[in-house]
């Protein structure tokens, strides 16, 4: 009789334990389901991935950028590093890409990593044709970047005469100074870019 009572109590305890764990199992399933759903949504939205617009910019491919645009990518998409696509193509010297993005409404005065601008990176790299396209599209020739450098200073310091000329012809102010107090002419003299020095001296 005692054994039967003990067995009945044990069965009762097992039922209680089962009743406790059933909600936990359901909760565990819900948590797993929720995490799985979030993960699925993240992949669907491309979290941690770069859009075709960015991939196209990095690979100098208007075709890939256009595919991304058709799929809903913004012409102002940004890379993982924080640069808008127009900065990427401007720095790469990809003129066709710059023209394409301008035609799709990309912001030509957008800032990227370290306060860089499309015009600033194009000027620094000496891509004079791209400098011209950006200026015609409304890029600010006196917009400062890191260390308060305007595009003209970056072009002059790096020895890019044609970029310097395009900037001056489109309203860049030659007396702008950076954080060190230097102008574009000061930098050209310091770096011994004689042709740029001669040109800028005529603009004073």
UniProtKB/TrEMBL annotation:
<dbReference type="InterPro" id="IPR036770">
    <property type="entry name" value="Ankyrin_rpt-contain_sf"/>
</dbReference>
<keyword id="KW-0378">Hydrolase</keyword>
<feature type="repeat" description="ANK">
    <location>
        <begin position="147"/>
        <end position="179"/>
    </location>
</feature>
<feature type="repeat" description="ANK">
    <location>
        <begin position="114"/>
        <end position="146"/>
    </location>
</feature>
<dbReference type="InterPro" id="IPR002110">
    <property type="entry name" value="Ankyrin_rpt"/>
</dbReference>
<dbReference type="Pfam" id="PF12796">
    <property type="entry name" value="Ank_2"/>
</dbReference>
<protein>
    <submittedName>
        <fullName>Ammonium transporter protein</fullName>
        <ecNumber>3.5.1.25</ecNumber>
    </submittedName>
</protein>
<keyword id="KW-0040">ANK repeat</keyword>
<keyword id="KW-0677">Repeat</keyword>
<dbReference type="GO" id="GO:0008448">
    <property type="term" value="F:N-acetylglucosamine-6-phosphate deacetylase activity"/>
</dbReference>
């Amino acid at each position: 009789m005692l054994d039967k009572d003990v067995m009945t109590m044990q069965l009762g305890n097992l039922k209680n334990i089962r009743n406790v764990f059933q909600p936990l199992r359901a909760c565990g399933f819900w948590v797993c389901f929720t995490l799985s759903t979030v993960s699925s949504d993240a992949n669907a939205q491309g979290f941690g991935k770069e859009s075709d617009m960015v991939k196209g910019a990095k690979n100098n491919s208007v075709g890939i950028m256009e595919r991304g645009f058709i799929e809903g990518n913004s012409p102002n998409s940004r890379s993982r590093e924080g640069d808008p696509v127009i900065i990427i193509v401007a720095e790469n010297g990809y003129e066709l890409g710059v023209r394409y993005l301008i035609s799709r409404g990309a912001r030509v005065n957008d800032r990227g990593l370290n306060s860089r601008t499309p015009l600033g990176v194009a000027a620094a790299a000496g891509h004079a044709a791209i400098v011209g396209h950006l200026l015609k599209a409304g890029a600010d020739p006196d917009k400062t970047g890191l260390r308060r450098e305007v595009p003209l200073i970056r072009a002059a310091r790096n020895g890019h005469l044609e970029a310097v000329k395009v900037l001056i012809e489109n309203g860049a102010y030659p007396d702008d100074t950076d954080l060190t107090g230097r102008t574009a002419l000061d930098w050209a003299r310091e770096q011994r870019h004689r042709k740029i020095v001669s040109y800028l001296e005529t603009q004073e």
